[in-house]
Write a structure and sequence with these properties.
Elements lengths: L5 E8 L7 E3 L10 E3 L2 E10 L14 E5 L14 H16 L3 E11 L2 H7 L9 E2 L3 H11 L2 H8 L3 E9 L9 E4 L9 E7 L4 E7 L7 E3 L7 E9 L11 E3 L13 E10 L2
Parallel strand pairs: 2-10, 4-12
Antiparallel strand pairs: 1-4, 2-3, 5-13, 6-15, 7-11, 8-13, 8-15, 9-12, 9-14, 10-11
GO molecular function: methyltransferase activity; oxidoreductase activity
Organism: Kineobactrum sediminis
Protein name: Methyltransferase
Length: about 270
């Protein structure tokens, strides 16, 4: 097997005194990252995760790639078959995580093509190193989504938020997702940052540079593969809790490679 290890630039948060503010885009041709913070570009090694032995898993690295055929053919018209797809990925996540229950609460379409974004009102790739939830915002998301009595019960046990990320139009060459092995990151690398969206204000984490970070990606991820990664886990027993991640410019992408088109689905995942 030929290695697809690469070296590529990624953007880390520059340390500063002010609290960063991340403004979520609304999607469309002109969708672009807008963040009230400064970033430094670091050239990093990003290893071919397909060559890991044993394979990466949710409990150690915090991410895994799973073969996953889906019955959905057109993700730009998901609404009529939303229940079907959500049943598919709930079963996928329960099998991969060992959880007892899960619920899907969000789908986001992205593309690095201005034309595609304009056609489908999709969003831009997130091309700074980040993680989607802090401890506080993960708990708030759970309380916002569940009835008060169920939320109180779920908060007394372990819960997680897992992202299911997949290509929706052929293999991913451009703007693939790089993931940082949880065990190589320090908790102090993650900086709580305000996230402002049209309908709510929350928190995510931007990430400081750390030379100990070990970066991976899955080259040419296929439509029939699903990438799972944790953005939060309430367990504090040493298992992976969150995964720093970012889109990056792939130096191995062929000149004529199609744009990246992807969907990410977020699930609340509950353990007994």
């Amino acid at each position: 097997m030929t290695s697809a290890d690469v070296q590529a630039p990624i953007q880390y948060l520059r340390p500063g005194a002010d609290r960063p503010i991340y403004f979520a885009s609304q999607g469309g041709a002109d969708a672009a990252l807008r963040i009230g913070a400064h970033f430094d570009v670091a050239q990093v090694d990003i290893a071919d995760a397909r060559r890991l032995s044993p394979p990466a898993n949710l409990e150690q690295q915090g991410f895994c790639l799973v073969d996953h055929a889906t019955a959905i053919s057109d993700f730009y018209h998901l609404e009529p078959v939303r229940d079907q797809y959500e049943a598919e990925i709930i079963a996928l996540v329960l099998a991969a995580s060992g959880a007892e229950a899960a619920m899907v609460f969000d789908h986001t379409l992205r593309s690095d093509s201005r034309t595609v974004r304009g056609q489908h009102t999709s969003r831009e790739p997130a091309s700074v190193v980040h993680n989607d939830y802090t401890d506080a915002s993960a708990g708030k998301r759970l309380r916002d989504l569940l009835p008060a009595d169920e939320a109180a019960r779920r908060l007394r046990s372990r819960f997680a938020i897992i992202n299911v990320w997949r290509s929706i139009n052929g293999p991913v060459f451009n703007s693939p997702l790089a993931l940082c092995d949880f065990s190589s990151a320090d908790p102090d690398d993650f900086v709580a940052s305000e996230r402002r969206a049209q309908d709510r204000v929350g928190e995510l984490q931007l990430v400081l540079e750390n030379p100990e970070h070990r970066w991976y990606y899955f080259p040419e991820q296929q439509f029939e593969e699903a990438l799972l990664f944790k953005t939060f886990d309430s367990a504090t027993d040493g298992r992976a809790r969150r995964v720093a991640h970012t889109a990056f410019a792939n130096p191995l992408a062929p000149v004529a490679a199609p744009p990246r088109e992807s969907i990410e689905s977020r699930l609340l995942v509950f353990f007994s």
